[in-house]
Amino acid sequence: MRAVSTAYPELAALEASGDAPELIEQVRAAVVADRVAAIADPVLQAWLGRRWTALAVQRAALDPEAVAIARGRARRIAADEAIARRFVLPAVRGAPWRELPCAERRPLSATTVVLCPGLLGSLMPMSALASTAPLLEHEYRVRVIVADSHPAASCSANARDILRAVTRGEGFAVDGTELRPAAITPRDVVLVGYSKGTADALTMLAQHPEVAAGVNAFVSWAGAAGGSYLADELAPLIADIDVGAFLEGTGGKLLRRLMPAAEFNRITRREDEFDLPGAIRDLRTDVRNQFLDEHRALLDALGVPFISVAGAVRVGDVPYFQALATLKLARRERINDMQVTQSQTRVPVAASVHLGTLRADHWDMAYDAFPRQLRFGSRRLSHPLPRTAMLGATLALLAEIGLIE
Description:
- This protein folds into two domains: 9-99, no CATH class; 112-230 and 276-383, 3-Layer(aba) Sandwich (Rossmann fold).
- The protein has helices at 9-17, 20-33, 35-40, 42-60, 64-71, 79-87, 96-99, 132-140, 155-168, 196-207, 229-238, 243-248, 250-258, 276-281, 285-301, 323-332, 342-345, 387-400, and strands at residues 112-116, 143-146, 171-172, 178-179, 189-194, 215-221, 306-312, 352-359.
- The chain is of the alpha/beta class.
C-alpha cells in the first residue's frame, strides 16, 4: 500500500508481508469496529479497490461466455487475465486476482438488496439488471426488491417509492410480480442505485434519515450522484412545456437519441405522475451539486458506507448515435460511460470509496442485449459485461468486511 496518512498502519504492513488471510480478517475487524472511520481511511480504500478487482475478475473468469468474449481470438490467454484486460479499467497495481484468495462463499439470507432504477427505466424493453437480479438471489441468497420508482418523476417523488421499498417491502420481485406490503420484511438493506436511481435514493436518505439505521451500505452503480452534463443540455428544452408536444418535436428527437430504446407509448401506469421536466431538472449538475453541498453533513452523519462503481468507454465503443454525447462528456472528464462521468458516480462524503471502473457503457452496466429491432443498425448494443459477477463481487466484498450477513 502507498505511504499515506492512516489510522491503520498495521494493515499496510500486513499487505506488504503478503499475509492476505490475516489482512482480510483485520480489515473486517476494523470495519465492524467503526465502519465510517474504516471506509474513510485511504489505506483501507486502496485495499478495498484492490480486493474488489480481485473478486470481480475471479468470479467473471468462471463465466464461459464472458471468458470467450474477453479472449476473442487470443484463445491461449488465461481466463482471469482476459477478463481483466477486457472488462476492468486498470487502476490497481499487480494482478490481485492471482495474488489474493477467492471469496468465502456464504449465504447472505439476512440481506435485502433494494434496486433503484434509473430514468425511463420501466419504459425500456427490459428492466435494469433484469437477468442479474434473479441470479444474485440464487447465488448469494439475498432478497431483492425492485423499487417501484416512476420512470419520469422528480427525485423527491421517487424517494417516496424507495422509502416504501426499504421500510415496507413494497415494489417488485425479480420476476416482475408486485410485492404486497410486508410480503418481505427488509433488513440489512443494501441500496443499489443505477443512474438516476442513485440521486433518488440519496434524496430518500436526506428526507428520511431515520431509516439509515437499517441501511448497511449504499452502492452507486453507474449512479448519477453528481447529475449528468447531458441533462444540463436537455433541461432547457423541456422546462415548462407540454410533454406530449415535446416528444413529438425536436426535444423528443434528442431524448430518443439519448434513450432510443425507450418506448414512450408504454406510459399506461401512474400517468398522472409523469413529470419528465422535473426528472431531467433533478439530474442537472448544478441541482445535484447543490443537493450534495446542502446535505453532505447529514449524509456523513448517517453512518452509511457509500460505494461506487463506474463505467468507462471510448468513442469507438459506443453506439454511433451516442458518439457525439460521449465526445462532449470526454471534454469534461476523460473517463465517462457516455452518460455520466466517473467522478459523478461517487457520493462525496467521508465514508465513500470508489471500488473500480469497468469497461462498459452506461447501458451495459445494467441492461441485457437490446432486441435487434431496437439496435438501429448499431453493433454496440449487445452489452457483454458480466454484470452478475461484478455486482456479485460487490456483495461478496460487503459480506467479507462485515457490512452484511
